[in-house]
Amino acid sequence: MKIYADPITVNCRKVLAGLDLMGVPYELVHVDYFKAEQKAPAYIAINPNASIPAMVDGDLILWESNAILQYAADKHGRSAVYPTDLKTRADINRWLLWEAAAWFPSCYVYLVENCVKPLLGGAADPAVLDSQAPNFHKLAGILDARLKAHQWIAGTEVATIADIAVASPMHLHGWQQLPLDDHPNLRRWMFDGVEKLPAWQKTWVGEGFITKKA
Ligand SMILES: N[C@@H](CCC(=O)N[C@@H](CS)C(=O)NCC(=O)O)C(=O)O
Fold first, then answer.
1. What ligand 1 atom has the least distance to the C-alpha of 66?
2. Given the CA of residue 12, which atom of ligand 1 is nearest to it?
3. What are phi and psi of 30, to 5 degrees?
């Protein structure tokens, strides 16, 4: 299984951490995001969206990070991290869709304003952050309520691909300056749960979008 990715990005870290969580081997093909290699014709032939990540496994080409995790877990029978019982699976699928459709776009605003813009020599626009804040708190409140009753998102004994997927858009939460103070269960899950997972630590990304600790 080849994974085309740049480990610094949200959706690439998601796939790499998820594959590590499930213990599935892969070959990383580095696509340099800041060199815009995702826009090169050779890569667009794999992923016409010109976005990363993408996966090639034999004759199967797959893009969409959550679809890659679902496929890898099913192919390798990793039912602990992607349970097969009907209701738990439906619940996890729901959180994966919610992450892609609602959570990632909201967290991404903070990533762009507080990380990417300053890194490129610009400055965050407070008006953009202010206008996103109500939506962010609505979504974070939904997640916080779920985590009040559960250690992990899907109510399982161990972390699942739902935890990795939903944590990924906030992977640089400090640098993103995500307003997490009002969401204690979300904080506990992220700080004492996800960030303690070896799979998460192995795919560490720090301020400046660096992937190696000094
Ligand atoms: N829904 C897609 C989103 C992929 C995506 O947006 N990837 C970003 C990096 S996290 C990207 O490559 N964006 C293209 C660009 O900024 O040029 C997925 O989950 O795979």
1. 19
2. 10
3. -75, 125
* Buried b or exposed e, range 111-144, using 16+ CB within 10 angstroms: bbbbbeeeeeeeebeeeebeebeeebbebbeebb
Cis amide linkage into residue 53, ω under 30° from 0: yes
36 & 94 share domain? no
- Which band of pLDDT confidence, cut at 50, 70 and 90, is reported for residue 214? confident
CATH number of the domain within which 37 lies = 3.40.30.10
Ligand 1 contact, 124 CB (< 6 A): no
Residue nearest to atom 11 of ligand 1 (CA): 51
Cross-strand bridge partners of residue 142: none
Asked if 108 and 34 sit in the same domain, the reply is no
203: Cβ below 6 Å to ligand 1?
no
Phi, psi of 13 (to 5 degrees): -60, -40
What is the per-residue pLDDT across 167-210, written as a single tens digit (0 to 9) for each? 999 999 999 999 999 999 999 999 999 999 999 999 999 999 99
In single-letter form, the type of residue at position 9 comes to: T
Alpha-carbon distances of 180 from 42, 145, 190, rounded to whole Å: 40, 13, 10
Which pLDDT belongs to residue 213?
A: 86
In a domain, 147, yes or no: yes
Q: What's the gap in Å between 74 CA and the centre of ligand 1? A: 23
